[in-house]
Amino acid sequence: MLRRDLENATGAAVRQAVRQGQWTRTTHGVANGYVQANLAIVPEKYAFDFLRFCQRNPKPCPIIDVTDPGDPEARLAAPGSDLRTDLPGYRVYRDGRLVEEVRSIEPLWRPDHVGFLLGCSLSFDQVMTDAGIPLRHLAEEEGRVSVYVSGIRCRPAGMFDGPMVVSMRPIPRPMLVRTIEVTSRYPMAHGGPVHVGDPAQIGIADPTRVDWGRWNPPAADEVPVFWACGITPQAVAMAAGIPEMITHSAGHMLVTDIRLGTTFQ
Amino acid sequence: MLRRDLENATGAAVRQAVRQGQWTRTTHGVANGYVQANLAIVPEKYAFDFLRFCQRNPKPCPIIDVTDPGDPEARLAAPGSDLRTDLPGYRVYRDGRLVEEVRSIEPLWRPDHVGFLLGCSLSFDQVMTDAGIPLRHLAEEEGRVSVYVSGIRCRPAGMFDGPMVVSMRPIPRPMLVRTIEVTSRYPMAHGGPVHVGDPAQIGIADPTRVDWGRWNPPAADEVPVFWACGITPQAVAMAAGIPEMITHSAGHMLVTDIRLGTTFQ
């Protein structure tokens, strides 16, 4: 199966292809127009703190769906889904360390597992591209933005307390207002930027040294624009020493049934 | 102190007046431009289910702030606030029954109490009035809308499962589109309507028989418009047999520091 075979598929069709082992790669460029989501599974013991953390930090952690403990279906965002099999890759963390990367978490699933689906920037990049805003990182197959641990502190909740991770995209100056307008309309995909301009003002001393992704230097007519990044809740949970967390593998998202630009309301 | 003395006060000033016993009445018409909130306090044991219920039903339960267990301050929406003293009236429910109505809940507060602030229609009515939409119920001092238990089922979460409570306002037909446009912009105050027109279509057989408030019959040139109502989470929690819940008294809200039309993002 080629990426272009799934380009105009529905979210449900992509999930089925993943579940049947027909699609095992990243989800960028598939099911165009459907919201994709980060996954974070935590034991119920930590779920209320984690949900409050997300609710208080909607830019890095836009809540798309939260499952009932033990229920692997995202009933709101993807009816019929199975969070144990419908993502093309998973990462299992124990005591803050990556212990394995797997294709299915069926053997690991427990009745106290709670799944969080959080908005991700794949949807977001598409919104900008559709609005005619050029995004240089999309020109490469890997599509890597520049990602940093910033000096912006998230609002804490229980054990979860830490800095906001941000992604930077160089934006042509004449496109800056449009970029802010467009992204602000999509709070489910990180919304408007958290900072525009000098990285040092948000605690990034040397922007050439990324924490994740790759360094995409702004050109002379471009300004660095920083958005809250969906890595934040994982990074904060790891730093807090959460004993167990299961997430999507980088770029291997859950594709939902939600159309971009809609809400649940 | 007269209502008009607080009309242009800040949210913090109203909270202080309430805390000092200078204001003991309802909060409609005070601190114009500030978001007011319903309060629901539940034991931590039920808080994760209740938060998922609210998150899944954003129209009846728009989440403004959720406190840490035992913390009486709404740090996001009203820094410096004390949820035990800053509302002019509280209702205490045990096993689904109202047991007392009090001015302060300091003696009742426990380390496992979690406070939920949810958007309310006082803010909402103001938004419509500012947009030139006439609201007949505001002409009376009590300001009572027609409130019904509808046949619309909320999305359940854990023990919380029940019908949506809705409020009805008669809207002049030529104002209908504007009404939907304007209210849709305020998801923190119930957002756009859930139904327009025939009450029977949402399970209200006889609209003259209200469950709360008073019957405001639509005139010949008016259409009944129904919004999700903030009574919903309380009604659902009571019906689910929650052993304890503390709420605001009707109309006695927490006035926050948040300006209408802003978000936390």
TrEMBL record, chains A, B:
Record Gene3D superfamilies: PSTPO5379-like (3.40.1640.10), PSTPO5379-like domain (3.30.2040.10)
A Pfam family: D-Glu_cyclase
Keyword Lyase: yes
Record key words, sorted: Lyase
A GO MF label: lyase activity
Protein family membership: Belongs to the D-glutamate cyclase family.
NCBIfam families found in the cross-reference section: PRK05463.1
Protein name: Uncharacterized protein YcsI (UPF0317 family)
Lineage: Bacteria, Pseudomonadati, Pseudomonadota, Alphaproteobacteria, Rhodospirillales
